C-alpha cells in the first residue's frame, strides 16, 4: 500500500487548523486527504503506516526563495547543492530557489546548463532565478530560451561587479516585460552604489575593523533604493520583492501598501545587531547588507508580525572560517549560514516567544514564496493534490544549537550556543520521510528540478 499518514496532528492548512491526519501517497508524492479526528475515526481511513505527530503541528515544507549553494565567486561556498540541501531538509526546508548568474560574456544557455549540472546532486527540490547582469539587453533578447529552460524568475542587483544596474536600466527591464504583457517576479538586491563607493574610498580597505562594513553601507543606502524601486514597480505594474531587507525605513515604506511590492528578510537580521562586528570574530558575521541597529532589528520583527514583510528567506551563503578571518573588511567573503535553522528559529522566536500565529508562520516560511515564485499550490500548502512536503513541529522541549547539529559542510555557525524552544521532529519530502528523530535519510540527487 502506497498511502501513508501523519496522525494526531494540528495541521495548518490554507483555511485554518485541522486536528487530525494528513494522508499522502508515497508513489505520487502528493497529499490525498486532510481528515479531522472524527472523520478519520468514522471512516477507519488511516493507513497502517503512520507517523505520530503526538499533538504537534504539521506545516508545509519550507520554501527558501533565496539561497546560494556552490559555484559563487572566487572563494568557494562551504555548501554545495548536496551538502546544503541536506541541511535544508534537516531544518524543514524541502524546496530551495538558487541562482543562474552569467559571468561576463557567458551566454545564458551555458550558465543555465552549468548550474543545472551542479544542482543534480540536490536532495531538496529546487528552482532557479536568472540574474540579469550588465549584459541584460543580450539576455532579454534570448528571454524565450530562458523560459524554455523552466526559469521565469529574475534577480537584479543595484551593486556589485558585472551586475550593477542603474534605476534607468531597471526601468528599461521593467518596460521590456510590460510591453510583452508579462509580470515576472523580480528579487532585487537594493543598495545605492555611488554612496557606498564614496564611503569606502574614505577608509583603509585593509583594515580588519568589520564595523567599517556597516559604516560604509549605512541604512539610508538601502532605504533610498527601496523607495526608488517601489516607485518604478508601481509605475510599471511589475512584481518586486526586495531581498534581505535590513532597515526600519525600508519596512516603513510598506505601511499601507497592498501592492505586489514585497519585502524579504533573513533570520540573521532578526537575531543579531552590528555589535557582532566588533573584534576579531566580527568577520564571521559579515554579510551584505550588514547587520544593523537594535531599532532596525525590532522594526523587522514588527514587520514580520503585521505582514509588511512577506517572506523569511536565508540568503544562505556560508564560507569556512579560514576564508573569513584575517582579511580587510572589503575582502571578507560575504555570507553566513541559516538554511538549517530558519524554520526552527522562527517557530521558537516568532511563534512560541512572540505569539505569532501559525498561519503567519506558514506564510513567511513557505506559502508567500511559493505564490510569488510560481510554485503554489504544488508547494507551500497542505491540501489534496499538493506535494506531500510536510514538517512536524513540536513545541515541548528545547533544542541546543551547535556545530555538531549542522548537516552541511560549515565549520562554524553563527547560531552556535543558541537555545531554541521546540524542535523539528520529522520532515517529509514528496511523500518520503527524509528526517525523523534527528536521523537524516536524504539520498544524493533525489531532489527534483521545478520547471516554472
- Percentage of residues assigned to helices: 25-40%
The CATH fourth-level homologous superfamily of the largest domain: Metal-dependent hydrolases
Number of helices: 15
Strand content: 15-25%
Averaging pLDDT over every residue, what do you get? 96
The end-to-end span amounts to: 32 Å
Please name the CATH topology of the largest domain. TIM Barrel
Q: Can you tell me the CATH class of the largest domain? A: Alpha Beta
- What is the quaternary state of this protein? single chain
Shape: globular
Largest sheet: 9 strands, mixed
Question: Which structural class should the secondary elements be placed in?
Answer: alpha/beta
Q: What CATH architecture of the largest domain do you see?
A: Alpha-Beta Barrel
Number of domains: 2
Low-confidence stretches: none
DSSP E strands, number: 17
Computed Rg: 21 Å
Amino acid at each position: 500500500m502506497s498511502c501513508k499518514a501523519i496522525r494526531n496532528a494540528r495541521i495548518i492548512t490554507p483555511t485554518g487548523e485541522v486536528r487530525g491526519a494528513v494522508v499522502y501517497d508515497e508513489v505520487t508524492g502528493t497529499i490525498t486527504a486532510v481528515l479531522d479526528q472524527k472523520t478519520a475515526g468514522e471512516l477507519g481511513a488511516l493507513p497502517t503506516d503512520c507517523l505520530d505527530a503526538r499533538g504537534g503541528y504539521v506545516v508545509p515544507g519550507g520554501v527558501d526563495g533565496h539561497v546560494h549553494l556552490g559555484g559563487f565567486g572566487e572563494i568557494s561556498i562551504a555548501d554545495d547543492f548536496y551538502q546544503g540541501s541536506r541541511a535544508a531538509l534537516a531544518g524543514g526546508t524541502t524546496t530551495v530557489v538558487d541562482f543562474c548568474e552569467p559571468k561576463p560574456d557567458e551566454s545564458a544557455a551555458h550558465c543555465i546548463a552549468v548550474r543545472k549540472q551542479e544542482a543534480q546532486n540536490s536532495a531538496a527540490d529546487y528552482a532557479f532565478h536568472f540574474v540579469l547582469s550588465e549584459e541584460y539587453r543580450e539576455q532579454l533578447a534570448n528571454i524565450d530560451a530562458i523560459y524554455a529552460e523552466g526559469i521565469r524568475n529574475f534577480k537584479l542587483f543595484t551593486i556589485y561587479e558585472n551586475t550593477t544596474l542603474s534605476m534607468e536600466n531597471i526601468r528599461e527591464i521593467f518596460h521590456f516585460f510590460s510591453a510583452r504583457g508579462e509580470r515576472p517576479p523580480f528579487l532585487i538586491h537594493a543598495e545605492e552604489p555611488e554612496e557606498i563607493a564614496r564611503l569606502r574610498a574614505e577608509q583603509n580597505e585593509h583594515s580588519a575593523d568589520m564595523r567599517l562594513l556597516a559604516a560604509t553601507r549605512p541604512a539610508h543606502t538601502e532605504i533610498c533604493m527601496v523607495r526608488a524601486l517601489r516607485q518604478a514597480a508601481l509605475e510599471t505594474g511589475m512584481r518586486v520583492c526586495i531581498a534581505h531587507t535590513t532597515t526600519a525605513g525600508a519596512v516603513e515604506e510598506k505601511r499601507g501598501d497592498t501592492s505586489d511590492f514585497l519585502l524579504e528578510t533573513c533570520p540573521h537580521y532578526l537575531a543579531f545587531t552590528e555589535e557582532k562586528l566588533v573584534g576579531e570574530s566580527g568577520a564571521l558575521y559579515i554579510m551584505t547588507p550588514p547587520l544593523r541597529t537594535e531599532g532596525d532589528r525590532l522594526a523587522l520583527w514588527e514587520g514580520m508580525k503585521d505582514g509588511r514583510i512577506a517572506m523569511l528567506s536565508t540568503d544562505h551563503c556560508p564560507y569556512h572560517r579560514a576564508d573569513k578571518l584575517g582579511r580587510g573588511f572589503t575582502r571578507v567573503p560575504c555570507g553566513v549560514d541559516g538554511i538549517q535553522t530558519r524554520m526552527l528559529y522562527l517557530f521558537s522566536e516568532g511563534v512560541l516567544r512572540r505569539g505569532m500565529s501559525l498561519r503567519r508562520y506558514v506564510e513567511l516560511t513557505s506559502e508567500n514564496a511559493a505564490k510569488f515564485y510560481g510554485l503554489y499550490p504544488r508547494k507551500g500548502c497542505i491540501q489534496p493534490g499538493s506535494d506531500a512536503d510536510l514538517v512536524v513541529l513540536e513545541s515541548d522541549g528545547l533544542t541546543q544549537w551547535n556545530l555538531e547539529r549542522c548537516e552541511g559542510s560549515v565549520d562554524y555557525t553563527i547560531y552556535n550556543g543558541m537555545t531554541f524552544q521546540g524542535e523539528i521532529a520529522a520532515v517529509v519530502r514528496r511523500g518520503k520521510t527524509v528526517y525523523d528523530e534527528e536521523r537524516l535519510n536524504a539520498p544524493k540527487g533525489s531532489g527534483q528540478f521545478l520547471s516554472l
